[in-house]
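Can't attach files on this board, so I'm pasting raw text. These are the components:
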Amino acid sequence: MTLIQKSAGISIQNLHLSFGNTKVLTGVNLEIKAGEFFAFLGPSGSGKSTLLRAIAGFGPRPKGKILVGDRDLAGLPPWERNVGMVFQSYALWPHMSVRKNVAFGLVEKKVPSNQINEKVEAALSLVGLLDYAERMPSQLSGGQQQRVALARTIVVEPDVLLLDEPLSNLDASLRVQMRRELLALQRKLGLTTIFVTHDQEEANTTADRMAVLDQGVVQQIGSPQMLYDHPENLFVARFLGTANILEGEITRADGGAQIELITGEKIAIESSVLGEGNLVLRPQNIVVRPDPSASALTGKISHREFLGAQVRYLVDVANTQMVVDQSHALDQPVLDVGAEVGLDINKKSGVFLPKKEVKHAA
Amino acid sequence: MTHQTAGAAPARRRLTDVLFPKFSGTVLAAIFIATLLFGFLILPVAKVIYVAFLDPQTGGLTLQNFGDFFSSSLFRESFYNSFYVSAMSVVVASVFALPLAYITSRFEFSGSMLIQSLGFIPLIMPPFVGAIAMQLLFGRNGTFNLLLANWGINIPFMEGLNGVILVQSVHYFPFILINLSASLRNIDRSMEESAQNLGAHGLRLFRRVVFPLAAPGYLAGASLVFIKVFDDLGTPLLLNVNNMLAPQAYLRISSIGISDPMGYVISFILVAFSVFSLWASFLLMRGKDYATTQKGGGGLSRRKLSTRENIFAYAIVILILLMVLSPHIALALLAFGTIWSYSPLPDGYTLDNFQTMFAQSGVYIKNTLVYAGLAAFIDVVLATAIAYIVLRTKIIGRQWLDYMATAALAVPGVVLGIGYLRTFNDFEVPLVGKPLASWWVIILVALTIRRLPYALRACTAALQQVSISLEEAAESLGADRSSTIRRIVVPLMSGGILAGFVTSFATAAVELSATIMLVSTDQDAPLAYGIYLFMQSPSGRGAGAALGIFAVIIVAAGTLLAQYIIDRDRKHRTGER
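---
Top answer:
Structure tokens for the assembled complex are below.
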């Protein structure tokens, strides 16, 4: 028996979906490679779970194509898709033992019973729960229930694996451990996996690539680092980590470019484009100077949070407030609230987004 | 709580503590209630069981009575019939309930409200009230068979045991409907979706996932129906079906006397079956709390019905609705009809029956209001006290008050009646000059004990919703325990207490099985007994039906009032307007 998957890629083409008159997904296009660990990331109501359920065949029927390998799933009922899904609540049937839960899909596939046993035990030992086969789901902890749900899904050797907020029902310490295990398992199986989450840390730490969704529209697709460093719009910039957004216009200046903020300050930056837009600055790319005289931007510290590895300052600059993180070393002094400070910005550290609104559904 | 034996305490003080223990008010209340429950529930039932094993001649313990019971063909037949009628009532009730539960939980059906109301309409009429009227609709010469006679068809709906099965299943099917619908509603959608995801659909999905998850609810309802029918006395008695256990017990005691051991043997069997079925359903339910709904999950997915399916669903629902309403319809026809015999409908319509009824049954109505009113009042007082003791004190054995009071559910009315007759017949009431068993107060006691579980559930639920911190706030502001109870706890429980009162009152007003054993003169008889008397003669049926209508109105008004109070209370609590 093999639990090593012949994995398939997923191609979603021009997918639209509505609940009644409410548009939930608009024009979704995605290419997920075979064997990839892919995340759907977005706030609640962004349509990420709806998209996942559409791949599994639940919910209203969408317009567009969902190809797994070269098979178009749109229009097939859930039970003919061979798409494995692990539910947020795990959905273990309380009237069946762990063994019966895991065997369920094999029985439906009419696998001969001697093979069922063998496969069930292989799947359970894969998730480390072979000794728990005769327990009832109510006798398991949350983490164990999740492993059973996982075993139950991969035992049928689906073409792809869908995980709906798999870590949200676990407590914080278990979550970190489980996400590592999930990733290790996925790598071992080589199974194309989509992971839905609203938690950017979860997506960042596990996904090869991810799609950020908002209001039913895919905002950007890329690796976690790519999306953090080079957001294509303000939503992605704000949703992934903390960002200072400075509005202004980029003009040529001696030897390079500068941005003139709408509040009047001028900051030298490197930019290949000119015009109006927003400058995205991560808090750690700004340096606080206790002496304000030499800096382009000056302000007053209005709030300070000591976070251990770093100190976060909120600095009132003209009419806006900026977030600045300074890494903290042993016994390094911190600045006090009320202090006048200068803010230095590295020329290369800002990302300029030319003025055009965030992509939204019409 | 009361004693803390400090090692150095002087022996003298300990002795006085033992002789004159300082009990708090709650401990005294607990002792009083325990005594009451012991005297009027445990003792009489134990007496009945004991007498079943007693040799009537020698007074020694014996199994001879059981031998006699099973060697009599009448009793064997009665035993078989009771079993058969109960089982068939479960089957027929399931036939009514399953389609309704299925339609509401699987489809978007516009008639769901209709089904919801179907769920409690039958319960507002005691089954025996409609029994006679049902004969006029479905009997050999009833409306349906007279109409069918044109085609030479005669369906024996009401012949012998069939009649009991039909009346009981029409009355009790809501127990199955309510329980089954609740457990279907509690199945999370992901339970179904994960099965579909793994390749199951259609009937296999239903058989492997949906049905097993709903089964505990169905079994809970079915066992309740079984035991209610098994214990019921009124319906078979009114339909003149005497070869069943409960009527045999009644007839033996009322015709041969309280020394005849057969009544006790039957009582033992009735109690044993009740306890057994409660225990069996407990075993079945144990560890099967399958309520799987998650927050925001919602129940099973519902499908829209096509027009044809919708018409079909409506046809089923309306058919069942008519069936369920048939006792009410028939009762109304009988009450407002002049003569109704060998004809599909009454010859004419009149209010005479109501005149006769009010002229003759003023005393029944008065007695009922007194008995049911007093019983319900005592019930809520006892229930409030028990709820408080169980939930708010640390008195040792407090749970047993709850268990004892609830155990009344497992005691059939006939058995309690026989127990009272046997236990209190020799107990002369001072100043009244009658044995307690034939004094009207014993009827009141029987109603109080039998309806206490209802009031207790309502009061326990009400107290559970009162946060302990509200009481602690009062105590920290200087209120002692009794004034906290008086000024904080009881006012906050008032909705639940009132609902408990109304439920107890409405159901006590139409209780027949215990009271029929205990009524010694017509002057003491309540309304249900009056209906029974009226229905004995064909000429009295109109007036009996009129009295039945009166009873239905009392129970219906009570049920609606209780519902209204509970709703208002809930809205009040959640701050809705």
